[in-house]
Specification:
The complex is a heterodimer of chains A (115) and B (112). Chain A is mainly beta and 115 residues long. Chain A contains no helices and eleven strands. Helix content of chain A is 0%, strand content 57%. The radius of gyration of chain A is 13 Å and the shape is globular. The chains are: A mainly beta (115), B mainly beta (112).
Chain lengths: 115, 112
């Protein structure tokens, strides 16, 4: 079984709809991250969480919100989807704590299309 | 400004034709450098973590090396199944926290 899972894997939605992307991990890691990937732009950080009570904005957080329901679960919401949020979304985890370097491990991704 | 640059953007090799991918970085407070493989539409798959200049790591046909300014991913006698995008990332300590900076990748195509 995959250590980091994401649901759904594909989603097509319309402008203005609220959607949620979910991430679960069985690696026992404290830190979780949400990234989006666009062609030619590489991976960009949306939000990250170092533990259940510690959530931080990344470089492109506008239009997104997150919830860390448990150590193993981290959800990303688009409150009112717009077409330029069409992208590949990845969840990642890392051990944190005394891990040095702190390697990130990625989920399989969600392909989101906003019409 | 912290920056990671990968070159070339794309590379076509014949099967068995060895080559190297480059990841150069300009950062302060380097805490680690990572290499990932990414297949189209899939999540980055972890390959290597490097930290110290002079460090080398190997896995099958891949070998990663690190200097104070750059890292190389050497591919020896590649096969078509090595075709993928290879991503480089660094972890840095800045403004009181750790962050990761990704390059835009090298798209490798190995022809049979």
């Amino acid at each position: 079984d995959a250590d980091v899972t994401q649901t759904p894997r594909n989603r097509i939605t319309k402008t203005g709809k609220r959607i949620m992307l979910e991430c679960s991990q069985t690696k026992g890691h404290d830190r979780m991250y949400w990234y989006r990937q666009d062609p030619g732009l590489g991976l960009r950080l949306i939000y990250y969480s170092f533990d259940v009570k510690d959530i931080n904005k990344g470089e492109i957080s506008d239009g997104y919100s997150v919830s860390r329901q448990a150590q193993a679960k981290f959800s990303l919401s688009l409150e009112s989807a717009i077409p330029n949020q069409t992208a590949l979304y990845f969840c990642a985890t890392s051990a944190g704590g005394r891990a040095f370097p702190d390697t990130q491990y990625f989920g399989p991704g969600t392909r989101l299309t906003v019409l | 400004e912290d920056q990671v640059t990968q070159s070339p953007e794309a590379l076509r090799l014949q099967e068995g034709e060895s080559s190297s991918l480059n990841c150069s970085y300009t950062v302060s407070g380097l805490r680690g450098l990572f290499w990932y493989r990414q297949d189209p539409g899939k999540g980055p798959e972890f390959l290597f973590t490097l930290y110290s200049a002079g460090e080398e790591k190997e896995k099958e046909r891949l070998k990663a090396t690190l200097t104070k300014k750059e890292s190389f991913l050497h591919i020896t006698a590649p096969k078509p199944e090595d075709s993928a995008t290879y991503l480089c990332a660094v972890q840095v300590f800045t403004s009181g926290t750790y962050k990761y900076i990704f390059g835009t990748g090298t798209r490798l195509k190995v022809l049979a």
